[in-house]
Structure formats: structure tokens, C-alpha cells
Amino acid sequence: MKDLPPQKRKALVQCLLVWYDKSRRRLPWRPLPGQSVDPYRVWLSEIMLQQTTVAAVGPYFQSFVKRWPTMNALAAAPVDEIMSAWSGLGYYSRARNLHACAKRVAAEYGGSLPNDEAELKSLPGIGSYTAAAIAAIAFGKQAAPVDGNIERVLARLFAVREKLPAAKPLLKNLAEALAPQARSGDFAQAMMDLGATICTPKSPTCESCPWIRSCAARKSGLERALPARSTKKKRPLRRGTAFVVISGGSEILLRRRPPKGLLGGMHETPMSAWEANFPSDPLCLAPTKSKYRMIEGLVHHTFTHFDLELQVFVSNVNSRQRGSIEGEWAPINDLAHFALPSVMRKIIEHALNPAKA
DNA sequence: GAGTCGTGGCC
DNA sequence: TGGCCAAGACT
Length: 357
Hints:
By secondary structure, this protein is α+β, with helices and mostly antiparallel strands. It folds into two domains: 6-220, Hypothetical protein, domain 2 (Endonuclease III, domain 1, Orthogonal Bundle); 237-356, Nucleoside Triphosphate Pyrophosphohydrolase, CATH 3.90.79.10. It has 14 helices and seven strands. Strands 1, 2, 3, 4, 5, 6 and 7 form a seven-stranded mixed beta sheet that branches. The longest helix has 18 residues, at 6-23. The chain is elongated. The structure holds a DNA duplex.
């Protein structure tokens, strides 16, 4: 696909925009008809949507914009509050970068995001996709964001047989060749909507697709086979032991994880390292010398690149023992206000209510 | 380029 | 059940 004839390009763009105007989805971060675009909301939604489904983001987006309606409000918030509000959404470095970005925009741009793609890309948490998406959607600039949806749509439209991720540069070129000057934000969102609703990974519903007559993959019967991907390695299994220490029946001992790396900066229950096997003598790793009982069953969790199995030990301590223990005591009734990753909530739930696990 | 970095839903 | 996938960024 060396060149795209201007005539053909124009026809493809118009065809997709007509479809978009007719079938546009109502999403929490999209302005209602008559409302103007708020770059802050565009940015916030794009960060949250990185590798995360629309359904998962919805409630988090609503709660963030209600609590922090502007970039300056977010910049002024304590990072811990942002981390706990992000709890459960995953990829926690996004939350830290979100705050770092807000502070820079507040300090360097008076709270208003820059409208230049290169400047956007220099901000924390904004990569090539997000910079292009904000430039196009929030500021109407001609830009070509390429996410997983758009990769799939373009790989099919032009029957790109090269495998991902090797095909990424080619797909980016195709997106740039197609991106219109006018309504480039709508065009990008139209391709994403198309990928999310019609040009889906497994079973695309080509009969409903506005591009059915132009689609090269469809002509060759390759629509389900493209885009091709290089094979992935299977996840290894790691195991560990977690300790749930309860004080006075009402508070749980938490610690803070190191700021970087997996679940960086989030709270955790004390626990062993995660290795190929369970620790041979787990109780010598416990945070207290109190008496522990092992909870029947295991907590299972899946991360991107490994599976995790945890055995859980529980101990009840009294106020006298508690003084010398290093960590933070979290009221069980107030755990929602702590920056706990989902796996930690699973551990606590398993300890407090083993019947359900 | 290849690893790291979460979580939940779907088939 | 288990593999796949989602509006990627960063190293």
C-alpha cells in the first residue's frame, strides 16, 4: 500500500463519517450534542482507557470528574488520594503519571493542556497514541492515533498480512495517509467505534460495516485471520504466602509497596516473595510472632505475564502486641479508601470470608 | 525489539 | 476451563 489515491481516501473518510454520525455511541467522556469538548476529560478518559475496557472505565471516569473537575483540582490533590481512587483499575503507574502530568500542566501551562502533538507526547503517561488522540479529539488537529482497534480495522481494510507488532509502522503510515484535516477526531473515534462494535477480533459483522465494499481482507476471506500476531509465551506460575493480621477484630495490617515496579506505591498485606514454590517455612516470614491459622483454599490471580497462587494465614492480635508492629492499620470498614490492588482485596476477602472463596 | 505492567469479561 | 483481548507507556 504505497499510495492512497486522493479520490479513494476521500471516499473512505466520507463513508465512515456518515456511519459515525448515524451510529455514534454515547460514552461518559463524549460531550452531549451542543456541548463543547473539554480537553481535560479527553485526556483523563484516554489515560484510563489505555489497555482497559470501556465498561471498566465508566464508573472510574465519573467518580474522577466529579471529585476533580479540572486539571488544577487534580494537580492539587494528594497523590495517595488519586492512587486509592484508581484502586482496582490496574496499571497503577498510570495513576502516578496522571498526577505528575496534571502538576506539570498546572505549573507550565496554567492548567490547560497544550494542543501540540509533540508537546503532549513529552508529558508523563502520554505516548504516541494518546498524544495523537488528544490532538485530534480535543483540539481538532490532523493527527492519526493508532490503537488496537484501529490496527485491526486498517489491517483488514488494506489486507496487511505482516504480523503484529512488526506491522505497527506500516499501519501507522496507513492511518496517517487516511487521516483527514477536517473532523480528524471524529474520524479516529469512528475507526475505534467500528473496531469495537463491528470489526471485532473474533467474529466481525461485516454485513453491517460501512467499509464492506472497500475491505481487502473481506474480498480475500481473510477478515477473521487478520491481523496476524506473533505467538505469545504462556504465563509461568508463581506462589507465595500472604499474612492477614487483624487487630481487635476491626483493623488489618497493611504495608506500602515500593514506589516502582509491580503494583508500585500501592498498599499490600504482608507477604512472602512470589516464586516457583510456596515458601518452605512460611511462618518464619510472618510480620508478627503471634499464632496463625491457615485458611483453606488458595487465592488465584492473573497478572499480564504470570499467574499467582497464594496461601493465606490469619492472625488476631491484641492492642498490647500491636504497638511494636511495623505498618499501617486499616479499618476493615474503611478499606475502600485505601490504595489496594484487586489481588490484595481478594486476599482480605478470602481471610475474612473463606466460605465464598 | 522484547519485557514489564492489572484486571475482568468473553467464548 | 484457559487463552485472548481491551482507546499503550515506558525501559
